[in-house]
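Protocol step 4 of 6: structure prediction from sequence.
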Amino acid sequence: MTAQEIIILVTIGMLAGILSGFVGVGGGVVIVPALVYMLGFSQHQAQGTSLFVLAMPVVILAVMNYAKTGNVNWKFGLVIAATFVIGGYIGSKLSLKMPEAWVKIIFGLLMAYVSFRLLLSGFQSINQHDS
């Protein structure tokens, strides 16, 4: 891993942890798109690595399936998992200090943005296959 990759992974872990603690969102909502757009992971690699981060013990069987096909990056997952814990603590502290309405607005904006990016990416993939 390069120093730049470690910085990106720490940022992903912190943001995922903060948002998880802040609005109760699963880390995959942040981790998967971040790995795809910031580090060039395939969707399957990003999903497998995200599941690894959240694996203990909830999704261990899903991680095993991704791992069997080579779609888990163990080193990157460990860095994100370590910083996710710290981010979760910070996010929960921030959320509890804000009015619930603002937390709902922030969560809704995040979900709308991620949904838009995923839809756009999916439509672009379909159009590339039709060409």
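Step 5 (inspection) to follow. The chain has a mean pLDDT of 87.
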